[in-house]
Design brief:
Chain A: Belongs to the ATP phosphoribosyltransferase family. Short subfamily. Chain A: Keywords: Amino-acid biosynthesis, Glycosyltransferase, Histidine biosynthesis, Transferase. Chain A: Pfam families: HisG (PF01634). The complex is a heterodimer of chains A (235) and B (377). Chain A is an alpha/beta fold and 235 residues long. Chain A has nine helices and twelve strands. Chain A has helices spanning 11-23, 54-62, 73-79, 83-86, 114-128, 139-149, 167-170, 184-188, 216-234; strands at 3-8, 28-30, 38-41, 44-52, 68-72, 87-92, 98-105, 132-136, 155-159, 175-180, 191-202, 204-209. The longest helix of chain A has 19 residues, at 216-234. Chain A starts with a strand and ends with a helix. Chain B is of the alpha+beta class. In chain B, 46% of the residues lie in helices and 18% in strands. Chain B contains 15 helices and twelve strands. In chain B, a hairpin with a 2-residue loop joins strand 10 and strand 11. Chain B starts with 8 loop residues before the first helix and ends with a helix. Classes of the chains: A alpha/beta (235), B alpha+beta (377). Chains A and B meet through helix 5, helix 6 and strand 9 of A and helix 2, helix 6, helix 7, helix 9 and helix 10 of B.
């Protein structure tokens, strides 16, 4: 029996995650060379570390491929259906902060709230012969927020895998749903966040995959790791 | 497991055949865009989507109304027409199977609104009575046109009317809006000084040219999305409706209306009494409502089993007048309504009035199995 922890494989997320674990007294050492995709934790022989991309971590948590993982809450909620049934957020880690937001062109002076946007969407087709278009890579979050929370049904999603903030100016879409940490990219592209348009305040989290087939010993190891990391974020 | 045609399918088709219909065949694989355009992105999670080799979005037929209407437009078959269908539909559902049978009638182009509405309710009711002779059927009716008339007669500005009408049929949205309407009015937030000054002066042309200049300066195309004139126009309207709120009396009127729930036979009188007490001029909508009840009576439909519920509606923008459903043992077995806006939305050159209904054959089979089980005991 063993426990697999997934940690982001590159960039700031990797450094910050390694740092949080180190401060919690869990030192991760790569197996073999520095660029290896496997690691171990000193004094915890039953724990394996797997370096994966942040969105693969969300997916693997959802299908039980890993037991614990560090990834953004936005990815967990976007990539998993019924996320709360499949995973549990053990600790919020205070880095990787980013908000998933609804942003519209600054020149839409009349649009400040989701209710305004609902009005615009409902008239869009009769004025323009097509539905309001939203560029995003967050299909699920957008649908939940627009349809379930705000009762806005009539819009179309245009998939955007990068440079989403440029879509309104270039005419590919009318508005966007995207992630922002400081808002400066949105500002540079003359977009504004709606006053009630924050869909999710995301940050990196330690996430546990729910499973009823895990051994008690493994659960105990996972609880111990979660406790240590939680102790850190409480301090 | 292959899904078997319900044993009562032929009974339904022969009943439909006696109701001046022609049966249509609709391909199982359909272009997905019309469904997503009409019902919204929320449908995407609930249909089976795939892509053709050339990148076209396709789906397994999730319902019949839209393809029947598209076929009608394409074949330019002329109106009026009554189309009947029976076949499998495919939807992702948490409860129940992902594929099940539906049957129904779409009545396109009949200018006699009351008669066409009555025929749709009667045909749905007759089919269910034939299939479930012992079941106690309950029919619930709503009317989008009456609701729209009440909202308009209350003197709300257009923006609020649109919001309320859009929320019709969705109790949570409606409650949230009613709560908002009882708040004292506020300013239009989020405006810079230059725009606010133009707005206060009511200068729509000035606002439009300000927006046009800003689009130009920030590299936005002024014709790709909302235009400067459109934004300025709505800003002026918004300033008007942000200063609107319902006084306590008007809010009470709206709540009293939404709480109306009466046997259908009494509903015309109940609505007339409501309008008189509230002092609302909604005569035209009430006439339409009364004509429908009379027409339904004339068809021999048992109106004793039907109720009118004022708050019953569907939050989709192509429904216009009648909405109804028929249930037994707590399950909705038939749903229908009038969708006069749908055909033009789908590309018809002229307005075509339309009403229809759909039967849930899997649920009907369940109720039948239950009553056969009871009979066997």
């Amino acid at each position: 029996m063993s426990v697999t922890i997934a940690v982001p494989s590159k960039g700031r997320m990797k450094d910050d995650a390694t740092d949080v674990f180190a401060r919690a007294g869990l030192t991760i050492a790569p197996v073999g060379n520095d660029r290896s995709y496997r690691g171990i934790i000193a004094d915890m022989p039953d724990v394996e570390v797997a370096y994966l991309s942040a969105s693969e971590i969300a997916r693997e948590l959802g299908n039980g491929g890993v037991d614990l993982g560090i990834t953004g809450e936005d990815l967990v909620r976007e990539d998993l259906s019924a996320a709360d049934e499949k995973v549990e957020i053990c600790a919020r880690l205070g880095f990787g902060n980013a908000d998933v937001v609804v942003a519209v062109p600054e020149v839409w002076l009349d649009v400040d709230t989701m209710a305004d946007l609902g009005d615009v969407a409902s008239h869009f087709r009769s004025r323009h012969g097509r539905r309001l278009r939203i560029a995003t890579k967050y299909w699920r979050l957008t649908q939940q927020f627009f349809s379930a929370q705000h009762g806005i049904q009539v819009y179309r999603i245009v998939e955007s895998l990068g440079a989403t903030e440029g879509a309104p100016a270039s005419g590919q879409a009318d508005i966007i749903v995207d992630i922002t940490s400081t808002g400066s990219t949105l500002k540079a592209n003359h977009l504004k966040i709606l006053s009630d348009g924050v869909i999710l305040k995301s940050e990196a989290c330690l996430v546990r995959a729910k499973s009823d087939r895990r051994s008690a010993a493994d659960e105990a190891i996972m609880a111990k790791i979660a406790d240590r990391v939680r102790g850190l974020s409480a301090a | 497991m292959t899904l078997k045609l319900p044993v009562f399918a032929d009974d339904i088709l022969s009943l439909f055949a006696g109701r001046s219909t022609q049966t249509v065949d609709i391909p199982v694989i359909q272009p997905a865009d019309p469904f997503l355009d009409m019902a919204g992105e929320d449908l995407r999670r609930r249909i089976f989507l795939t892509e053709s080799e050339t990148g076209q979005s396709l789906c397994l037929r999730p319902e019949f109304t839209i393809p029947v209407c598209l076929r009608h437009i394409e074949l330019a078959s002329g109106t009026p027409q009554r189309y009947a269908y029976l076949g499998q539909v495919f939807r992702q559902r948490r409860d129940g199977g992902n594929e099940f049978f539906q049957a129904g009638i779409e009545d396109l182009g009949n200018a006699d609104i009351a008669a066409a509405d009555a025929a749709a309710i009667r045909d749905a009711g007759d089919t269910l009575s034939m299939l479930l002779p012992d079941a106690e059927l309950q029919t619930t009716l709503g009317d989008q046109a009456v609701f729209e008339a009440v909202v308009a007669a209350l003197g709300l500005p257009d923006g609020w009317q649109t919001r309320l009408i859009r929320a019709f049929g969705d109790q949570d949205q409606l409650d949230a809006l009613l709560a908002g309407l009882s708040q004292p009015p506020g300013d239009v937030p989020g405006l810079d000084n230059e725009a606010a000054a133009l707005l206060n002066a009511g200068d729509e042309t000035g606002l439009a040219s300000l927006i046009d200049r800003r689009m130009d300066a920030t590299g936005y195309l002024s014709n790709a999305s909302r235009t400067p004139a459109e934004i300025a126009d709505r800003l002026i309207q918004k300033a008007r409706f942000s200063s609107a709120h319902l006084d306590a009396k008007a809010l009470d009127v709206l709540k009293t209306f939404l709480a109306l729930n009466a046997p259908l036979a009494d509903a015309p009188d109940a609505l007339a009494a409501f309008a008189r007490i509230a002092g609302l001029d909604i005569g035209a909508a009430l006439d339409g409502f009364g004509e429908r009840v009379a027409a339904l009576d004339g068809t021999g439909f048992d109106t004793g089993s039907a109720r009118y519920r004022a708050a019953f509606g569907r939050p989709l923008d192509y429904y216009t007048g009648l909405v109804f459903e028929i249930s037994a043992q707590g399950a909705v077995l038939a749903g229908g309504g009038r969708f006069d806006r749908l055909l033009t939305l789908l590309g018809a050159k002229t307005a075509i009035p339309a009403v229809g209904f759909s039967l849930w054959l899997d649920r009907i089979a369940l109720v039948r199995a239950r009553s056969e089980g009871d009979a066997a005991q």
